[in-house]
Every structure is written in C-alpha cells, then in structure tokens.
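Annex B.
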Amino acid sequence: MAELTTLARPYAKAAFQYALEAKDLAGWDKQLATVAAASRYGVMQKMIATPSLSAQQQAQVLVDACGEELSSPVRNFIVLLAQNKRLVLLPEIYQLFDALKTAQEQAVDVELTTAVELDDASRDNLAAALGKRLDRKVNIQTVVDQRLLAGVIIKAGDLVIDGSVRGRLEKLAKAINS
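ATP synthase subunit delta: predicted structure tokens.
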C-alpha cells in the first residue's frame, strides 16, 4: 500500500495544483471520485490492465465508462496516467487529492456514529461545536449503528470521542475489574 501511495503522490499533487490554479477543486474532486470508483470495478480493472490494449484505448474505456461526467482536463489527466501505466493508481490518487483539498480548505471530515438518525438542527449544532473545538470547517458524515444504545462516537482523523452509553459501560466494566 505504501508503494502505491508513493507512486500516486506526484500525480495527486499535480492534479491538485492544476485544480487549485483553475479554481475548480470541487469539480476535480467530484470527477476524480467518479473515475476512481469506476476503476475499482472488477471488469474495469481487467480492461485497464489488458496488455493487448494501447494506453489510448485503456484511457478511452475508462473515460467512456464515466460518460459526460469528465471535463477535458480530467480526460487528459487520464490519458497521461494511461501512457505512464498508472491507471491502477486512480483510487490512491483520489484519496491523496481529497486529503490535499481538505487541508487547503482547512476542513476536517468527521464521522458521526449515532444510535438513531439525527435531525438537521442537532447535526448543525454538533457541527458548529466541533468546528469551534477543532478550529476548522467540519464536514459531517453520519452513520447509524443501533448497537450503540444511545450517545455518539465522533471520529475526526486520529481523534476519537466516544460519548456512547456502550463505551461508558465498557469503561466502567474495566474500572470494576481492575
């Protein structure tokens, strides 16, 4: 995995720089997400790894699979990756690009796990409080896990805040058994 990241990093940085200069970070992020998702499918993985297809043909197969979603610069980027035999790196390139975009926007992606679905007001209040605490813009992704009983688990990068009843019960059990 580290090898793939090392190979993908220069491409992600180049795409990020281009998107930043073109003031189209959101557009590139969306398009790279689309093409990375398309490249993960088993059939597509076989097609882009087929040695009997030229680099141009491999790129065209991937571009055709994404339809009209891709702009001309992104299509050119895919052709460049195909010429350098790096199409298999698309998922890693997207992850690195997204991380660079998040850092540029001084934002943090937060995964919020709750026992029940939160209403918009509660979610917005939590995002505002986390934004103050982390001193960044917060992008919340919610996950419902009915095993939690009650409370929330917040994951922001390497920070984990376990405010669930289940987590508190586990801490109590450890304390009693110690």
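The chain has a mean pLDDT of 81. Residues 2-21 form the longest helix (20 residues). Further annotation is deferred to the next reporting cycle.
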